[in-house]
Amino acid sequence: MRVLSDLTDDEVTAAVAAAGGKPFQAKQVLHWLWKHGVTDFAQMRNVPGKLQQALAAGHALRHGTIGKIDAAEDGTQKLLVALRDGETVECVIIPEGERTTLCISSQVGCPVGCVFCASGMFGVRRNLSAGEIAEQVLLAKSVLPEGRRLTNLVVMGMGEPMLNLDALLPALQRIHDGAGIDMGARRITVSTSGYPRQMERFAAADPSYNLAVSLHAAEDTLRKQLVPTATATVAEIVAAAHRYFGQKGREVTYEVVLLDGKNDRPQDAVALVETLGSLPCTVNLIPWNPVEEIATATGLRRPHSHRVDDFADLLRRGGLKVTVRRQRGADRSAACGQLRLRQLGGAPAGARG
C-alpha cells in the first residue's frame, strides 16, 4: 500500500486520476493532508465519497502515529512516534515564551555514535522517508495546546540529516510549501555532525535553510574521542560550513555539548576561539543532558554551571558570539533518543563499554 505523505504533487495527481478524480481534486487532497493534518480520507469534506473510498483502497494517508507522550513540568513534550513497520523515532516540542520549537528526526537510530548521545546506542536501523520526516510536524501540531503554534523547526533529533538528504530535502520542501504546512525557510535549521561533501549538496538546495554544525571540540584528537565515526577533520568541516555561509549568506551555528572535564576546559575554549574566532558564526553551548545508561558506563557528567559560564566567558572574550542552551524537559527523559531507549529496554549489551 502506498503512503500519500511520501508522494510528490505529480504522484498524488496521478493517484487521484487513477481513482477517477480530477487534477483540482488532487490539490484538495493535498490541502487536507498537509494544511489540515487529517488522519482519514473521510475527513476530506469537499472530496467526493467515491473518490475517498477509491483512494483509501490503495493508499494510507500517513506512516506515523503517536505511541507515547512524555510531558515535562516546563511544558516540553517528547513524542514517541510509532511507524508502520514497528520502528519508533522521537520528536520534541519545546515551548519558550512566544516561541515554540519542534525538534524532529531524520533516521531510525543514528550511525554517528557520539559517546554522549542515546540516539545511536543501537546504531542506525534505516533512513526515514520524506513523509515520515514531514509527518512529525503534523503529529506535533495535533497535540499543541490551544493558542500555541509551531514557530521554529530543527532537524536535530535522531539520525544524521546529511546522510538522508534524498528524503530530507523533499520533506523540508513539503514543510516549507505555502500550500501545505507553510513554515518559512528562515525558521528551519538542519544540524549535522559534519559531512563536507553532503554539506555542499545541502548548500545547493533551494530555498536556503539554516545550518548548525555539531562540533563539540576544535581539536581533532578530542573530537574523535567524542565522535568516534568522524572522518572529516575539524578544518574540513569548518571550511565546508564557511562555504555554506558564503553561498547562502546564512550565519552558521556551531554546537558544543559540554561534558565535565572532557571538553569544557580553558584550553578547549582557546582552541575554539583559534578555530572560529575570525568567522561569522554563533557558538551554542549545550550542557549535557545526562543519560543514565551512558553515565553509568562511561562516567560522563554534566558540567557545573560555573564551568559553563567560565567557558562561555572565555569564548566571548575571544570575540565569539555565544548562546547557552537552558536544559528543558529534565524531569522527563530530556536527552534525545532517551524515550526510544526506554522503549527498547535500555542500553544494548556492551554499550559504551
Structure description:
This protein is an alpha/beta fold and 353 residues long. The chain is 36% helix and 20% strand. It folds into 2 domains: 2-60, DNA polymerase, domain 1 (Orthogonal Bundle); 65-344, Aldolase class I (TIM Barrel, Alpha-Beta Barrel). The strands form 3 sheets. The chain has a 10-stranded mixed sheet with strand order 3-4-5-6-9-10-11-12-13-14, covered by helices on one side. A two-stranded parallel ribbon has the order 1-2. The protein has a two-stranded antiparallel ribbon with strand order 7-8. A hairpin with a 5-residue loop joins strand 4 and strand 5 (88-96).
Entry summary:
This protein is α/β, with parallel strands linked by helices and 353 residues long. The chain has twelve helices and 14 strands. The protein has two domains: 2-60, DNA polymerase, domain 1 (Orthogonal Bundle); 65-344, TIM Barrel.
